């Protein structure tokens, strides 16, 4: 059986201040993966207009996400960093995927249900419903194989696999005729595939970083309380204040990971410490088990400040030089467009459009 050429793709929305969850769930993994992989990292600006159409400073937001990628250590020369709207093939493939995917698949998405929530259908954009179809297109327009994301994106990636599979099966004859597919195995099933079955990369000690105010809620850009999250642009004093105020319970830290069960806030802070120091939770508990939060929190503050401050400083420096950031995005956009267009040429052939 053949295999698709490994390729890493992921994206971040320019919808507000990046926080520690975005960093640990996504961007830190992007940096680690670039050592041994071909990687494409995208500022997904088309996604940003699905929940809210008008943004005060969309261009500034786009630049700030690109700055965060680069300040965290992504090499935009070896890899590709660009903004999604610069490559129209994402939207073109998303339209085809809108015709592959079923409405019921989209309506079952937890994020759609959460974000459309109590609003009536007149207030929710069609784009919000179709969001996972565009996300599948973002990945598959490069035939990417691996996608580093936080745990909240798992369901969307399962849907991307469903879309890829349905496209491969619906067009199996055309894919064979075009000679652009390869034989893969999906479970035990042999499939002649044009699109790969993407693998989510969600591992690590903090796949879902939780709110500092409520360990049962995801840390999120849209949480009304700024104390719930550490923003990548926070300075040392703000980081210190937020960790000091972070909700905890009165018990000492356990010595085993099992002991974190039923203690969401303790679990979250230990997970954050482990992810920031590239250690396991067990390793952290071997050091801090039996200690009170009055000892653990100052250690976590020192660690968070030492990891995040250089990134924040570099982000500020980069954001002052918009010409440089724009040049990186333009160059990345050109290279991404060339790759996406090759794939779209084959897709148009398979679907039967006249080129
Ligand atoms: N709390 C989190 N823990 C781990 N990973 C997270 N990610 C987001 N929040 C956490 C991951 O960050 C990447 C980029 O996310 P995004 O900006 O595209 O969208 P999002 O998931 O909608 O981010 P927010 O902050 O949670 O926004 P709102 O408040 O709008 O819901 C993704 O890989 C995501 O998994």
Using brief descriptors, characterize the structure shown.
single chain, 355 residues, mainly alpha, 53% helix, 8% strand, binds adenosine-5'-tetraphosphate
Q: Number of helix segments?
A: 14
Mean residue pLDDT: 96
Assembly state of the chains shown: single chain
Biggest sheet statistics:
3 strands, parallel
Bound molecules: adenosine-5'-tetraphosphate
Q: State the total count of DSSP E strands.
A: 7
Strand order in the sheet with the most strands: 1-2-3
- What general outline do the C-alpha atoms trace? globular
Distance between the termini: 31 Å
Beta-strand percentage range: 5-15%
Model regions low in confidence, pLDDT < 50 over at least 5 residues: none
Write the H/E string, N to C: EHEHHEHHHHEHHEEEHHHHH
Q: Radius of gyration in whole Å, from Cα?
A: 21 Å
Question: What fraction, in percent, of the residue positions are helical?
Answer: 40-55%
Structural class: mainly alpha
